[in-house]
Write a structure and sequence with these properties.
By secondary structure, the protein is mostly helical. The chain has helices at residues 2-12, 15-42, 45-66, 71-85, 88-99, 105-133, 135-154, 180-184, 186-191, 195-211, 214-223, 230-252, 259-277, 283-309, 317-345, 348-369, 372-382, 388-398. α6 packs antiparallel against α7. The longest helix has 29 residues, at 105-133. It is globular.
Length: 399
Amino acid sequence: MQISLFIQVLRDSSPAVLAAVELVGTLPALAFMLVAGALADRFDVRLLAVGSMVAQAACVLGMAFFLDHGIWITAALYGLQGLGNTLWPPARQQWLYGIVPPESRPAANARLGSVSGTMTVVGASLGGVLAGWNPAGAMAVACALQVLAAVPLLAQTRRPLPHAEPAEPVRERGAAREPLRKELTAGLRVLRVLPLARSVVWIGIAWGCIGGAYDILLAAYATGRLGGGGAVLGALYVTDGIAVILGTVLAARIAVRRHLSAYTAAYVFQGLAWGAFFLAGHPVAAVALLGVMRLASGVVIALDTTILLATVPAAVRGRVSSLHMTTYGAMARVSLALFGGLLVVSDVRTVGVCAGAASVVLGALWWWRRDREAGRRYPAAVAGRPQPQAAGATANASA
């Protein structure tokens, strides 16, 4: 879907226009993400996840029809697809934690990253070939794949969730639910007493600002300085997917006590390789450096959710997950606007190198500002042993 959209826009327009399309196409999701988290804590996550898939399939079908006829109509449908997708991550995470015991959740989170990387390879391989032939045809294939993705979920909707924890505090009979407004802000309130989760949220905000234009910079550099088209861009995304898979496999083998130091190192190496990528003038060197960058990203992806949710009570897990994605997504959209402006007055290489340097600084700051006491409690929290902060966090969320 993304390669089809990018190639179609870049055929007739500049990278700055592509940034604007991304901005217009993703803004609706930002306003709904906190609501999506509250819904995932309140309703059956299995039905929410399946509904999200169906809604996305309908939107991608519309994108396939309008891709050749109106880029801004396509951008609007892209926005609706993103709106449907906002329900998927918090619902999926709650569903996953309902079927996986606490001690196996780090490995499960890492495997989610591997699945994502695998599908990036498949999508990039198909997208690179099909978009070079016909971007609208490639988008239609994306729609068919989206429909197929919902099929295995339908078979799972009636199966029990043996490890599900109470999604909300027990209320007395006849007691009314809290107002939705209060439920939406519960994720913010609980972060006041959970420094480790709070630190993951702020590093997500910072990286969203730096890395939000990743796809734009990658597409612009591949089709510009590297002199490629759909094939080169597809090769880069295949490398992206393979490297993320390897990174998540590596992360699954890292001892829990070393998660936080590995998380920091991954941010640093990610930035170094990302900056070096834009100094490469040959496609082979660029592919190799992108592989190193995304290997580090795979470690971040695998550890991010585990570190974020290790100390978060089940009652607000969906909202904290959605808050993390909301703030990251918001800054990524701001980043698109910022980088779109920068690309008008500067070149892709300069902007990319600066973004890589910023990632290195970000990783160092996270390590320096981390809460050391929370770090010492982290292994026990991952193992599912009760934490003294958890009860206070739940009370704070409902206060």
